[in-house]
Structure formats: C-alpha cells, structure tokens
Amino acid sequence: MEWGFNRARFKNSADNHSSSQSAEKNKKINRRGLFSPLTSRILLVNVLALAILFIGLLDQGRYEKDLIETKVQSLFTQGEMISAALAESAYETRLNGSTALEPSIASPMLRRLVKRTKDRTRLFDGNGYLMADSQSLLGPQGATVIKVELPPIADNDTFRIFVKWLEMIFLEPGRNLPLYQENAYQRAGDYREVERALSGEPSSEIRINESGRLLIGVAVPVQRFKKVIGVVFITHDAKKIDEKIHAYLILILSIFAVALCVTVCLSFYLSGTIVRPLRRLATSADRVRTTPSQVKALPKFQGRNDEIGDLAEALNAMTAALSERLDAIDRFAADVSHELKNPLTSALSAAETAARIDDAQQQRKLMAIIKDDIIRCDRTITEISEASRLDAQLSRDENEIIDLDPLLATLVEVSQSGSPFTNQIHYVENGTGPYTVLGKRGPIERVFKNLFDNALSFSPPNGEVKVKVRRDNENIFITVEDQGPGIREGSLEKIFNRFYSERPESEQFGTHSGLGLSMVRQIIAAYRGEIVVKNLKNSNGKIMGACFVVSLPAC
C-alpha cells in the first residue's frame, strides 16, 4: 500500500512538472508579442539594407564637385570678358613707354561690367595693389559705402536642424578647405590665385567662409600685348550650391522616410505571414504534446501554397500518423491481453482441476494441456516481440536495391526443401525484368516466406503453389496462388488483422498466433506497396484456392 501511494505521488509530481514546463513554454511563446526574434531579424535586415543605400546617397562628393567645376568655368568666362574689356579700354601709356591700368577709367568700367552680377569683383594692378572693389560703392559727396551680407537668422525648425546636422556629418568633413581671410589693406599676396595670375596663368581656389559656406575665387590676368598689367579677381559665395545640396539632402530624406515607412510596413506584413502561422503551429504542437486528445487540433492553412503551407501539411500528416500509431498501440495492447489471457486461463483451469482429482491418467492429460498452453504463450510472446521490433527495424536500417528474381527463386527453393508438406511450390517469371525494388532484404524475405508457408499450409496433399512475378512501368506484382479452401468472403480483410487466425481443420489449435499476415501488410505498407487477397474460382463459381497479390514500386 505504501509503494502504491509513493508511485501515485511520483506520478502526480511528474504530471505537475510536465504541466509547469508546458505553462512556461506557453508563456515564452506568448511573451514574444509584436517584436518576436524573427520579426526583429526581418525588420533589421530590411532597414539595414535601406540605411546602407541612404548613407551611400548622402555622399555628395561627386555631385558637389560637378557643381563647383561648372561654376568655376562660368566664373572664368566672366573674368576673361572683364579682363578683355579692361585691357582694351582702361589702360594708359606712360612717358617711359610702359603700359598700365588707369584707375580713373578702370574703376567706373569695372562697376558697369559687374552691375548685373552679384559676384564680388576686385581689380589689382600690375604691382599687386588693390585698384577697385565692386563691394565698395561711391556714395554722396564721394563717401565710400561697403556692402556686407548679414548672416542668416537662426532657424529653430527641427527638421532643418536635422538636415544641418547631416550636412555637418557627411558634407563638411570631406571639404577640408582653407578658411577665407581678408585683410583691411589687401594685396595680391593675400590670395594665391591672384599671385599665380600675375604670372600670366589664370587660377582658382576654393575656400570656406566663417559661416561654413563655400567661397570660390577665380583670378584672370589682364594682358596688353601679352604683358600682365593687372588681375581681375572674382569671388563667388556658393550659396546656391549649398542650397542645391541642401535641397538634395531634403529630397533624399523625404524619399528615405517614405521608403522606411513602406519597408517597416512590408516587414511587419511579411513577419505576420510567417511568424503568426509559425506561432499557431508551435502553440498547437505544444498542446498536442501535453494533451494527446488534441492531436487533430493543428491548423491546416489549406489556402497557403508556400513553405508554411507545406510545413502545416507535413505536421498534420505527422500528427495523423501519430494518432494512428497511438490507436494501433491501444488495439495492440488489447489484442495482446486477449491472446495471452486465453492460454493462461486454460492453464490455470487445468492446474486447478488437476489438483482436485486423483486419477493419474487424467492428471497427465491436464499436464499436457498446461504444457501446450505454456508453449502457446511462449510462441505468442516471441511473435509479439518480433512484431514490436518490426517498426524500429523498418525505420532504422538503410534501404537498398533488391533484385526480386533471385530472391524469390531462392525462397521458393528453401520453402520447398524445408516444408513438412507434400505440396509443390513453383516459381514462374512472366514478362521481362528487371524486378528491382527499394527496401531492406530481411523484411522483404520475411514477407514472401510468410506468404509461401501460409500457402503451403492451406494447400491439400500433393497440391501446387504457384509464385508469379511480372512488371509494368511503375510497379512489380508478385502473385502467390494456392489450391486450398480459399477465404470466406467476409474475412478477406480480417485475415490481415492482428491475432486473426483461420486455420485448416486438420491443423492443431494454437500453433499459429495470427500475426504473420499482419506483419506482411505492415512491411509492404512501409515500402509504399499494397497487398490484396482474392479467391480463385472456376467457371462454375466454385472456389479453387486463394491468391495473394503484392505490388511494390519498381526501382
């Protein structure tokens, strides 16, 4: 009683442990929520690819370089036109015969030439001194007015601040340009491009001003008969270039924002089409594990023609096979109990009767009955053990290509030589081979040995058993025909049930367990084959024997 209590307590403890594990697993499945690991991975991969593309587009180097080169060429053209006009009309010839720019002519002409442009233009004479500056205008009573642009008003808009921050990260570090500095008294030596232009070579320089904007400087020599008499120095505040780059950044950001929203939405949609079905399958599979009665509760996803649908179909097929296996185990246990209980009951009854009688002859008969029942139990247990190991054998070993022609010929010869009956068994080959199948040699041999022994045992004395083999395109058919009493019409399917036995009247009771044909069908089904049985009849409808037909896929 104490042992029974402890075992019950242990079982309850195991059940509680299993229930707690199931509860923990369900919590883990449900706790993942919207951002499951798979969802996070899908989102990360998609957003990362978009971010890499976005960072690549933010590299403005080539775009900015093209804009600057275009503007430099435009400034060179403008400078050459001003230089040509000054060289033609704003010079004077001195007493010593030398030629130089005349300030009284050059300054008003310079103001008229640059009136339509907003670029600051300065004129240096041949000695490098500043002669005129378009930024210095002549006011009333000859007063000098200097025009200076004020810095822009600070912008507190968050989006513009973000764009400015991107410009600081991706644009300004790549410039690495010198800072523009202007002295109160300017000389040609303050600017490298002007110095080079005094040597007769047009030149340009790119700088940045104090506000971080680009400043393009172009110097063009003013030449009279190939003698440099001055330099036209044009500086351009590349505000429009920065504005174009700024607009380009805003365009990229807008496109990126839209693409990011679409990517996130599509990622969640893709994740939903993958994660939710997998989560349902995981939850249902866990429910099947903990509650075997829910083995048919897996979702089917019949409308999905993708890998998730294939997975659901495979899991449903697996659970269906599991359900059939559980039912088969239950039936097998019930059949085993019944088959063992009969001889044990008979032996017990004979033993009790033998203990009550004194007749020695009757006691010997009862002992013989007990012995036969024990032998019957031993035979049944042996065959039950073989049937139980059959599944493992079929799933464990590797399949091989088997040629049925020599195998059947050998088995026919062995069955004939080892048979206690006077019947004859013949092997007949119909058609052309090869008769090769994919399987395991041991189980295949067992199938046909059982069929041959069964046919020989049912055939009358001096009867004949025929074994025929033929092949069509996809299957190989093996036929075993005997000349026995045949099979009752209602038992054509029952004979393949476990422990079903219908033997000839001349055979001693209990010599067969009824598992042979059941194992034959199990082996054939494992190799995607089929076995059927029918009665052979003459023209008058009289049963002349039984015919077993085995079909196996040809290899």
CATH topology of the largest domain: Beta-Lactamase
Q: What topology, given as strand order, has the largest sheet? A: 4-3-9-8-7
Multimer state: single chain
What does the average pLDDT come to? 78
Shape call: rod-shaped
Just give the CATH class of the largest domain: Alpha Beta
Count of alpha/pi helices: 12
Under the CATH scheme, the architecture of the largest domain is 2-Layer Sandwich
Class per helix and strand makeup: alpha+beta
Give the SSE map:
Elements: H1 2-31, H2 37-57, H3 61-89, E1 91-93, E2 99-101, H4 103-113, E3 120-125, E4 130-133, E5 136-138, E6 144-146, H5 158-175, H6 192-198, E7 203-208, E8 214-224, E9 227-237, H7 239-290, H8 307-356, H9 360-396, E10 400-403, H10 404-418, E11 424-429, E12 436-439, H11 441-458, E13 464-471, E14 475-481, H12 516-526, E15 530-537, E16 543-553
Parallel strand pairs: 11-13
Antiparallel strand pairs: 1-2, 3-4, 3-9, 5-6, 7-8, 8-9, 10-12, 13-14, 14-16, 15-16
Folded structure, characterized:
There is one protein chain. The protein is α+β, with helices and mostly antiparallel strands and 555 residues long. The protein folds into four domains: 1-31; 80-246, PAS domain (Beta-Lactamase, 2-Layer Sandwich), CATH 3.30.450; 300-396, Helix Hairpins; 398-555, Heat Shock Protein 90, CATH 3.30.565. Helix content is 54%, strand content 18%. The protein has helices at residues 2-31, 37-57, 61-89, 103-113, 158-175, 192-198, 239-290, 307-356, 360-396, 404-418, 441-458, 516-526, and strands spanning 91-93, 99-101, 120-125, 130-133, 136-138, 144-146, 203-208, 214-224, 227-237, 400-403, 424-429, 436-439, 464-471, 475-481, 530-537, 543-553. The strands form five sheets. Strands 4-3-9-8-7 form a five-stranded antiparallel sheet. A hairpin with a 4-residue loop joins strand 3 (120-125) and strand 4 (130-133). The two termini are 60 Å apart. The relative contact order is 0.06.
